[in-house]
Amino acid sequence: MASSPRELTQNPLKKIWVPCKNGLPDRHISQRRVCMTNCPTLIVTVGLPARGKTYISKKLTRYLNWIGVPTKEFNVGQYRRKCVKTYKSFEFFRPDNEEGLKIRRQCALAALGDVQRYLRDEGGQVAVFDATNTTRERRGTIMSFAQQNGYKVFFVESVCEDPDVIAENIVQVKLSSPDYIHCDTDKAVEDFMKRIKCYENSYEPLDEILDGGLSFIKIMDVGRRYLVNRVQDHIQSRIVYYLMNIHITPRSIYLCRHGESDLNVKGRIGGDSGLSVRGKEFAECLGKFIRDQSINELKVWTSQMKRTIQTAEALSVPYEQWKALNEIDAGVCEEMTYEEIQENYPLEFALRDQDKYRYRYPKGESYEDLVQRLEPVIMELERQENVLVICHQAVMRCLLAYFLDKPAEELPYLKCPLHTVLKLTPVAYGCKIEYISLNVEAVDTHRAKPEVGTFRVSSGMLNLSWCLQASHLW
Amino acid sequence: FLSSSQMWCASICPASLPPFIVPLRMCMTNCPTLIVTVGLPARGKTYISKKLTRYLNWIGVPTKEFNVGQYRRDCVKIYKSFEFFRPDNEEGLKIRKQCASAALNDVQQYLGEEGGQVAVFDATNTTRERRETIVRFAEQNGYKVFFVESVCEDPDVIAENIVQVKLGSPDYTDCNTDEAIEDFMKRIKCYENSYQTLDEDLDRELSFIKIIDVGRRYLVNRVLDHIQSRIVYYLMNIHITPRSIYLCRHGESDLNVKGRIGGDSGLSLRGKEFARYLAKFIQDQNIKDLKVWTSQMKRTIQTAEALSVPYEQWKALNEIDAGVCEEMMYEEIQENYPLEFALRDQDKYRYRYPKGESYEDLVQRLEPVIMELERQENVLVICHQAVMRCLLAYFLDKSADELPYLKCPLHTVLKLTPVAYGCKVESISLNVDAVNTHRDKPEVGPHCTAWGPVSSNMRSVPVLSATCTLGLELLSRRISDRWLLNRGDILKPVRLDLFPHFVFPAE
Fold first, then answer.
1. Strand order of the sheet with strand A320-321?
2. Which residue positions are annotated as catalytic (chain B) (predicted)?
3. B399-443, pLDDT tens digit by residue?
4. I need a surface site. Which of A12, A115, A454, B167 has the fewest CB within 10 A?
5. Model-level pTM?
6. Running DSSP on this structure, what letter comes out for residue B20?
7. Contact A225 B200 (CB under 8 A)
8. Model ipTM?
């Protein structure tokens, strides 16, 4: 019958209880991750050129990676550019161009080969196969490939006939593409329109009846309408929700921290103190800055901590408080200085440098926890237009990592100094970032990643090296 | 200006204050939302309406459903037959139109005067004409409209629907099963000829979701705002596959035995015994593909370990954070935080422990758990008292006032099975003794608190009466432990003499 229950031991880094045998962690449980499916997912884009497939692919990949689902995009156009060094003209894409067809097919297969390697050998969980995939035949090939490898397939089709949207798309991302580097604007546009034409005749959009057995979302007119078919699992449901919340209306997101606080001045972390004199000055400057920017219908968000609210108060505009924007909970280390932490919790201090992203303060949180609690904030930021988020150092690093596609290793070391506003404006496939310092002095709260070197270890830390070695096994 | 945690609240402030801040919930929509169902009879409109209403209320959006069929039953006392619904029945049409108008009037009252944020108008609404009437009504009143259509032609689904909810309806109380089904099928036929389904072209200006074949496929058009986006996400995650959800707490813990709250202790001997009994119970139940979820606290994980099955750890299922009161005994809390003690009585749902959480916070962090529970089938959730209360309140549609007082004893499994429009609950005690951690809602009067019966070691703390409205308003701000400004109203200065020993005067 049932064997005696296993002993539990707590991972010193993440503070997670895991069963262990003979002092070593044992398998059998899983941490709640987004992608609880055992089989990887292959997302396949579908659509004519200039319908936003690559925009969607890159954005979705960035989002999934940020929430902790290892994802990579495979853009067949990139493979084609590597293979055919110089792009000549739209003729390459003519449906009767045998040579062109052969090369394009090879590129698609090469990309699928890399997908296989990524999902099987590199720990990938989701692969985004970004190509036109406009014929049922091509999609059939991909389905067979996925079936052989045990992947779930989810199609993302973008359908749009609005000439303005297509024209803007071409301006934003095609004109500067390597294909058209040596062309003038008019020639490039003309060639690209002919390129689109090459696909139009053979385009078989996803059909609710003919493709009723497939899992897909059809995005129409940049999100005006969606058709969603056979969502199979949690990750597909999250993908659909995300895709239904993003938009392409131009806007800017302003991120900044609260003004310098009294605890900042004392070099203490966490807590819920008010603004210092310089912090109040910053708040005034921020008010002026915002007014000068003349932002259309700006929404202002703060956390529920005094220092962000005090900062917002100086703006004299309505603002919303989000508990989710509260600073990382440092648990037993709240309101301590780094020296005190090193003194009282030398092991914790060292563990944090070991893996700052996953490290959870005792009775507190980790950056990894922060990302999970910030996900609804990101989702709402995607829905909104112009927003100013007044938050905290760790929180701002998480949000910034999402917009700038920074991996978990870099996230906890992103520079988010006090009294500096970051203005993020989506452009092409990414985000333009402007750093605006409001020229009010403040302490520096940034700690760079320590160099690999010797640590000064006090005599009490006999188990330190074992812990450091063992912690990342879990 | 801001209050501090030491001071009670603000005093008189100048009238020219900056505009007030708005809690996030209120900002979901500026204007109320009218959700309108569309579909033939027996397509799950009422099921969807009730479920959606339950979900929105649970996440804090005041929502109410208005079922036109109910209005019709109130008007036409006795249902005779499907003939009432014949499209050529002038009398019937007149009554049905009146009922729809009466329902819309009540909608107006709810959204206008009763603080409602969302109203769900549950009727067939199968013609474009009827829908246009509703859209005009909404426009006049400044409501956003969101249509939810259910389209289904699967005869098995429709038959099951009829068995589950129509046979038990007041309309068919005095009929035998066959008669009832026959009549109902004819009733459906009355609508079919005039049914104008939502069309992506003809209705392209409307905001709607069309649910096809019980969630196989969805068509979503013009989602306008955050609340509509959340509604769409929710509707796309629910299903009607029969299943059961098992909720229980961890086995009795060492801290439970010591009468201390919170913490991260292991199981007591009795707690370990419960874990073994739970394993046996689960085995005997023979549940298909059971998923097991725990929190990241030792006591739930130890409990799951005894089951010898894979389980998932959710941080979101951790017990409510009691902040500065963690691991304290009630006597210690009263000693060190007598004000907190009293405040918790006043509004246990919104009360936030200093540096901790409130039940209201818990609900927000549990929302992804609920969403995933909706997606899943058979699940056992091993969690904690406050967490279990929140989850239970969602399934049993309990209000925020009742939620913190729901009974969730140790060593008892609650089996929830969706049935008809609600949930069947079976309470299964596994017959292993444990301490009782439940505190009833206190009567207004001396010697009772939300913390439990007063022991001989504790001073009596009179309960705050609800009659002092000034005190209530100030208290509600302090309870939530939020940094708030006055809202541009002029507040009276705080009279500390009103709070001797934390007793509020009667009117």
1. A430-437, A420-427, A253-257, A387-391, A299-302, A320-321, B22-23
2. 250 (tele-phosphohistidine intermediate), 319 (proton donor/acceptor)
3. 999 999 999 999 999 999 999 899 999 999 999 999 999 988 766
4. A454
5. 0.89
6. P
7. yes
8. 0.91
